[in-house]
Structure to design on (304 residues):
C-alpha cells in the first residue's frame, strides 16, 4: 500500500490521511517537516508516486531556493530522468533566462548533445522562432572557436530563404570564395574601365588615335610576358610595338621592338617577352605605331 494516501477533487486545506469528507475541496494528503522529505513514494514494480487531476496539474513542485528546481527527476539505470508525453512533450517558460536548458557531460565519441531533437517522419528535428528585433530563431555559438557554430548535413546541407549576411569568409572545398569574389569584382571593374577608355580614346578605326592597354603575366624566373592589345589601326596594316623598360633603383633602361598586324577590325593583340630582374622594380611601357596610317597610340605600361 501507499505510505500516505488521501483523496480530494481540488483542495486548499489538508485532511487526515484516508479521511472521507464528501463535498469538500481540500488536499487529499498534507505533511510538513523541517528536515527530510515531506512525501516519499516507493514501489519495486509500479509507479512510485502518482498524481492525477481532471482540471489542474497532476503533480506540481515548488522550490523557494534559487539553486534548486521545483521538480527533479533522476534515473540511476541509464534511462530518461524526465519523460513527457502529450501534444507538447515538454514545455518550459523562462521568466528571467532560458525556457529549456540541456547539458551533456558525455564523451564526444558517443555523439552526445546538450539538446537533441528528432522530427521522425512528420516534423523538423529542431525549430526555433523569434519575435524580438535582432534576435535569431536558432543561434549556434562555439565557445572555443575550434569547431563550427552550426553544423548541417543533408541534401542540401543548408537552405536559406531571404538575404544572407556573412561577416567573415566563405570557404568551399578549401578555396576562399570571398577572396575570389572580391578579386573578380576588382578585375571586372578594371576591365570595364579599360574598355571605356579604349572606346573613348580610339573613336573607332579609320579616325582618331589608336588606343592600347597592356597586361603583364609573370612566368617565373627573370622573364615575363607583356601582352599589348588595342584598336584604332587600319584593317590589316603592319604595326610596330616599342617597349621601353626602366628598372629602379639604378637599373639600366632598355628598349625592344616587335612586329605584328592589325586584324580586319583594326585591332591588335600581341605578346612581347620582357625581363624582370630580381631585386629591382621594372616598368615596361609600350607604344604602337601603324606602318601604313602613321598613327601612334597612347603609352600603356605595367611593372614587375
Amino acid at each position: 500500500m501507499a505510505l500516505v494516501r488521501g483523496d480530494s477533487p481540488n483542495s486548499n486545506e489538508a485532511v487526515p490521511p484516508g479521511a472521507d469528507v464528501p463535498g469538500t475541496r481540500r488536499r487529499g494528503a498534507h505533511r510538513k517537516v523541517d528536515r527530510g522529505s515531506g512525501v516519499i513514494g516507493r514501489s519495486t514494480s509500479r509507479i512510485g508516486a502518482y498524481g492525477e487531476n481532471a482540471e489542474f496539474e497532476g503533480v506540481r513542485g515548488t522550490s523557494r531556493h534559487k539553486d534548486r528546481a521545483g521538480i527533479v527527476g533522476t534515473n540511476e539505470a541509464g534511462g530518461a530522468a524526465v519523460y513527457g508525453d502529450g501534444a507538447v512533450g515538454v514545455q518550459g517558460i523562462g521568466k528571467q533566462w532560458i525556457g529549456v536548458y540541456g547539458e551533456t557531460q558525455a564523451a564526444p565519441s558517443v555523439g552526445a548533445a546538450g539538446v537533441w531533437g528528432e522530427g521522425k517522419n512528420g516534423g523538423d528535428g529542431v525549430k526555433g522562432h523569434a519575435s524580438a528585433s535582432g534576435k535569431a530563431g536558432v543561434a549556434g555559438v562555439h565557445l572555443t572557436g575550434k569547431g563550427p557554430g552550426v553544423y548541417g548535413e543533408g541534401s542540401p546541407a543548408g537552405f536559406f530563404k531571404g538575404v544572407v549576411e556573412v561577416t567573415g569568409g566563405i570557404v568551399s572545398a578549401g578555396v576562399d570564395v570571398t577572396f575570389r569574389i572580391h578579386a573578380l569584382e576588382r578585375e571586372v571593374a578594371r576591365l570595364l574601365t579599360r574598355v571605356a577608355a579604349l572606346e573613348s580614346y580610339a573613336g573607332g578605326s579609320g579616325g582618331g588615335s589608336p588606343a592600347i592597354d597592356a597586361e603583364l603575366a609573370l612566368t617565373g624566373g627573370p622573364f615575363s610576358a607583356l601582352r599589348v592589345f588595342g584598336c584604332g589601326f587600319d584593317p590589316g596594316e603592319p604595326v610596330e610595338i616599342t617597349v621601353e623598360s626602366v628598372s629602379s633603383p639604378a637599373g639600366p633602361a632598355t628598349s625592344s621592338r616587335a612586329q605584328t598586324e592589325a586584324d580586319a577590325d583594326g585591332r591588335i593583340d600581341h605578346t612581347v617577352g620582357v625581363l624582370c630582374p630580381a631585386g629591382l622594380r621594372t616598368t615596361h611601357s609600350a607604344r604602337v605605331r601603324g606602318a601604313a596610317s602613321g598613327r601612334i597610340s597612347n603609352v600603356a605600361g605595367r611593372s614587375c
The domain at 184-303 is CATH 2.60.40.10 (Immunoglobulin-like). The longest helix spans residues 177-202. Residues 122 and 137 are 20 Å apart (CA to CA).
